[in-house]
Amino acid sequence: MITLGIETSCDETSVAIVKDGRKILSNVVASSLKEHKPYGGVVPEIASRAHLGALLPVMDASLRKAKIKLSKVDLVAVTRGPGLMGSLLVGISAAKALSFSLGKPLIGVDHVIAHIYAGLMDTKTKPPVRFPLIGLIVSGGHTLILRMDGPDQIRIVGRTLDDAAGEAFDKVAKILGLGYPGGPEIDKLARGASPRHLQFKKPILSKDSFDFSFSGIKTAVYYKVREIEKAGRLSPAIKKEICSHFQEAVCQALVEKTLAAAKKEHLKNIVVGGGVSANSRLRALLRKNAIFPSMALCQDNAAMIAGLGTALFRAGHRNSLDLTGYPNGHKA
Ligand code: KG4
Ligand code: ZN
């Protein structure tokens, strides 16, 4: 079964061709990140315009790379949310047009759940991960711990009550005058430093809860930096130290709660997904316990959309041409 996946929820335009839900024949990604950099964040209007320009060339490139003709596509899968509405609509409209003109079924996929599904597609993982599993999703927009018993059987175990983990990385980087996106910058700068004690409180709510709160640590970093700045001591070495303390507190909180959730749910399989799963410290701390998708599958991509779309289709789901997008929340 050949699935064509489309992802346009944020600043990446991606089209992938996936065979039988796991074998990635192509996964082409174009990004408008550079156009957003001067603004320190994704500008929705710029993102939707970039998708309009990139989608057809990216689709052509993906089909060519997979050596698949459009007529051989059996299923069209598309991200329906969460994301920027204007961006989502570009992908959804294209998917509907393809589905209608090819006479092939259409399936809308949740972007957040797809980030976890990416871990099940990674063919380098032997033996392959299976449901049930605990999923940790850490991205610029989401921080969730989920229990997944199947592609459409999902229960939220823990979540952030305010900022997402990636958002906290981006905001702290901004406070420190580092580039955007902040996560990779902090990761790079923190390398080599090894905080022995935690300078910032771990962003967890309480011992018994699996929820997070990242706004407090961001404020704590802000006041710390202001205090050091006033004293005229904000050197590159101090910035490095702050980055490593911040990163350590965030990663320890994520790891602690994910392992506790797996224990409570009596599950061994843990999959980590979303942009922050690229973080080297998080990977090191969870190396023995969790599956991380390969770097290409960690970033926003359409292979994970095609993969989850195929699994949902096989479980009996499909959508009509009335399919709409949603900016927030998530849907199985
Ligand atoms: O999943 P993603 O590509 O986009 C969505 O938010 O859906 O995640 C982007 C986020 C950004 O906040 C970025 O700063 C963060 O992932 N990120 C990282 C790293 N690489 C990307 N955060 C920490 N360490 C990294 N190495
Ligand atoms: Zn994402």
Report on the architecture of this protein.
The protein is α/β, with parallel strands linked by helices. The protein has 11 helices and 9 strands. The chain has helices at residues 33-36, 44-66, 85-102, 111-121, 165-175, 182-190, 215-230, 236-264, 280-286, 295-298, 303-314, and strands at 2-7, 12-19, 23-31, 75-81, 106-110, 133-138, 143-150, 153-159, 270-273. 49% of the residues are buried. The strands form 2 sheets. Strands 3-2-1-4-5 form a 5-stranded mixed beta sheet, sandwiched between helices. Strands 8-7-6-9 form a 4-stranded mixed beta sheet, with helices on both faces. The longest helix has 29 residues, at 236-264. The chain starts with a strand and ends in an 18-residue tail after the last helix. Zinc ion (ZN) binds at residues 111, 115, 139, 274-275, 300.
Bound molecules: 5'-O-[(R)-(carboxyoxy)(hydroxy)phosphoryl]adenosine, zinc ion
Mean pLDDT: 94
Rg, Å, rounded: 20 Å
Helix content: 40-55%
What is the count of β-strands?
A: 9
Biggest beta-sheet profile: 5 strands, mixed
Number of helices: 11
CATH topology of the largest domain: Nucleotidyltransferase, domain 5
Which parts are unreliable, with pLDDT below 50 for 5 consecutive residues or more? none
- Principal-axes geometry comes out as globular
CATH class value of the largest domain? Alpha Beta
Which strand-content bin applies to the residues? 15-25%
Strand order of the largest sheet: 3-2-1-4-5
* Count of individual domains: 2
